[in-house]
TrEMBL record, chains A, B:
Source organism: Saccharolobus caldissimus
EC number: 6.3.4.18
GO biological process: 'de novo' IMP biosynthetic process
Catalysed reactions, semicolon-separated: 5-amino-1-(5-phospho-beta-D-ribosyl)imidazole + hydrogencarbonate + ATP = 5-carboxyamino-1-(5-phospho-D-ribosyl)imidazole + ADP + phosphate + 2 H(+)
NCBIfam families in the record: PRK06019.1-5 (NF004679), purK (TIGR01161)
Task performed by this protein: Catalyzes the ATP-dependent conversion of 5-aminoimidazole ribonucleotide (AIR) and HCO(3)- to N5-carboxyaminoimidazole ribonucleotide (N5-CAIR).
Keywords in alphabetical order: ATP-binding, Ligase, Nucleotide-binding, Purine biosynthesis
UniProt xrefs under HAMAP family: PurK
Signal sequence region: none
Name this protein carries in UniProt: N5-carboxyaminoimidazole ribonucleotide synthase
Protein family (similarity comment): Belongs to the PurK/PurT family.
Residues annotated for ATP binding in this entry: 103, 144, 149-155, 178-181, 186, 257-258
Amino acid sequence: MMYSILDWKPKIGILGGGQLGWMMILEGRRFPFTFYVLESDKSAPACKIADKCFSPEQYKEFVDSSDIVTFEFEHVYDKALEYAEESGKLLPKLNTVELKRERYKEKIFYKEHNLPTPRFFIANDGEEALKILKEEFNGVGVLKESRGGYDGKGQYFIKSDIEKYEFLKNKKEKFVVEEYVNFDFEASVIVVRDKKGIIANYPPTFNYNEKGILVYNYGPYYNQEIVNIGKKLSEELDYIGTMGVEVFVVNGKVLINEFAPRVHNTGHYTLDGAFISQFEQHLRAIVGIELGSTSIISPSGMVNILGTDRVPHEVLRYGKIYWYSKAEVRKRRKMGHINVVGNNLEEVKQKIDKIIELIYPNGLDL
Amino acid sequence: MMYSILDWKPKIGILGGGQLGWMMILEGRRFPFTFYVLESDKSAPACKIADKCFSPEQYKEFVDSSDIVTFEFEHVYDKALEYAEESGKLLPKLNTVELKRERYKEKIFYKEHNLPTPRFFIANDGEEALKILKEEFNGVGVLKESRGGYDGKGQYFIKSDIEKYEFLKNKKEKFVVEEYVNFDFEASVIVVRDKKGIIANYPPTFNYNEKGILVYNYGPYYNQEIVNIGKKLSEELDYIGTMGVEVFVVNGKVLINEFAPRVHNTGHYTLDGAFISQFEQHLRAIVGIELGSTSIISPSGMVNILGTDRVPHEVLRYGKIYWYSKAEVRKRRKMGHINVVGNNLEEVKQKIDKIIELIYPNGLDL
């Protein structure tokens, strides 16, 4: 181990230029690090503050210029991911991304490692998926396209209206057919694991999603079962870095919904509620610096700004803005978020409610 | 007042590219602001993360391109300051800078406004200064060159060795001759005042300076007299923005040492100890956004990294690094700082002591 933090000034390559990369760089600027980003859209948040932004075709140059390569988005840049893995620079490693490329592999992984998850079957195409749904779940459940799903994309929540989903018969890809979980609430935990295998976790949070997108979350919600599941998952994956694990809580039981092999939206609160954020921990883990404390210094939470750039000034009475300065507002798009802190969970939740009223005076339109 | 935070996306010009500007930009990146910096050294911390860095000769273009002009260093760029004031863009206004250009004006201001400060005389040159020191203070006191003093520059602490200072006789500039204050300790308060005249303050801190440079500080040190003095000063100056007011505490009495018309080194702890930092408050004040809370969320403090780039990894067990990435290490130069938080003042102080041992194993060399 080197004596001084300044003995190594690594160049860190980040795949993806979205807000997660942006916050990673903002946090990382306090260290002697250089940041490169690979991203097709030069106006993306992280590109604007990176030392250099590479286009996807320049992936070899990007990887060759970096000492360490990580990612803030796991669904694209396959060539870059693979080349970074071959070069021995990718952290976390490709095994975690592989699970996210195909949902069915993620579900099988949970099953094989005794990690509790909603009951599921794997279908080879849309037709089979509908058939399984009828036979095994009485026509009520969730169909998920195996590829490319995030923020609710490619997911179909089918209740008593299965006839509306006949069009899925034409889909020739794999599906996960899952039981519909009537959860009490959703929650998540942010886990960090370093190169020595030391694992730390922030306290879990209560999450509120709508149409597959996180709207707000807050904590701490101390639940050891969630923590144990998150830690076990990171260990079984031999994971290095920060990850987010989303769960359903139903009748006191915990079921994994999915994990994200990266810093996570439900961990944004750590920028203000904790001394060391999920972003700094990720950088510490991949660079090989001892992890910092994951204790919180205050009950805290977060509200996403979705699909709007109308943010009343009054919001700043209750929270702190993180505006991603994206070039264009689009429906459902994450434009920014507001972090809040409070003396207790009730105060945090009240501030969140106030902020939601102010940002979405006519209700959420997702 | 505009409805949305996004209705105005001001371009903010910062005079000076040091670490204070750097932290202002890092904090300001969360808002829809653009940042320009005026700085002769392109490798300066703030230049590296600004949207554009202008050279001093480009001061007109810099001011004309900015909607608001502020500064992180008040001792240079006179033309730019004056042109920004003429353009009606400078905040805080030039009156505050004028007091800092000439120490004797600052002292007279305190006297005229009944703000307690160490007893002083004004001398027209070095010879007169030495004469006053002998006659009024029995040869023991502090001689301060009236111009260009900061970080202990141009200050002479004379005890029983006045004969060593004969060389000052040749100095033809104004001096402040001040009593030597045998203070119990030093302290400071960070005050913010907005365009409506609303004043907020962080809790004061205990400060430890050596040879005119801040080494560490921590708080909260609740002392209403310090707060009142800081607020009064900001009001009398019709100040807009964040300022730091440094005081001596002696036998329970408070005397102003000096103020800084900008974000201040003793307010760096607010990046982690408070929800809203001194940097964000400064930006809110000059842009015209309602100030945020100045409550702290944790006892906290800061250690400066002075004149070295040897920072053992172990430091990160106790605190959070802010490394300014300056091109060159120089004696006494502020290279970075470490913020700490703790459950109480004792814990914060213990962490500070630990960090000082680690960074300065052979003692401070200033």
